[in-house]
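User: Hey, quick favor. My workstation is busy. Could you predict this chain's structure for me?
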Amino acid sequence: IKALRESKRHSSWIAPNAAYEASCQKFLDGILSSEGNAFVAELSDFVASIAAAAALSGLTQTFLRLTTPGVPDLYQGCELWDFSLVDPDNRRSIDYLCRAQSLEQKIAPANVIADWRTGAVKQRLIATILNHRAQSPQIYSDGDYVPLTASGTRAAHVVAFERRVGGARLVCVASRWPQSLAGPLTLPLIESNRWEDTALSVEPGKFVDVLADGPPVTLNGTASIAELLRRFPVALLFARSENG
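Assistant: No problem, here it is.
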């Protein structure tokens, strides 16, 4: 009813069309309630076919919100996957205990990708980047934004930029349009072979991978996207200035 009234096509808050709203409600009940409903089965199959790609896109959006210039806007209670509609649907109580218990597991984001359906991977991504922002605030608050250029067969599926301040560097890499790139996924992660020859042009440097427990990453002017996004759908590589 809220959607019908706010679209203002055939009903509205100031001029509600009760007959139209009742017909829409009857139609909705009909396509969702019948036993053996072919529509419900078809819808469920469709959702299953795009779920992992949608999760990957959600991780990309979360990543960009936390790394692009500006102050990240975090809506309390949406640290995990959130399927609520706008208010009042999004005003339900928050399970803080569940979120606190999830945060207590000190695991790198890349190591929870297999259990992506719980949403812990999104929460871990948020927590890890916010922690890094607290440790190195200037590059996020004052760092220049420098777009990076990808080349190769799948270059259109790459989103990449660098933040720079006082000699410190933050290379940010993500993917977009995962379904058209790789088809139905089982994990929110693009298989390395899908990237083919796609590479990123970036100035040489030695970086720490903020999102994964691993050795330092050395970039030598051209970086393989398949390698950068091998373990996780986004990459956050940090190089301190020579002055620390």
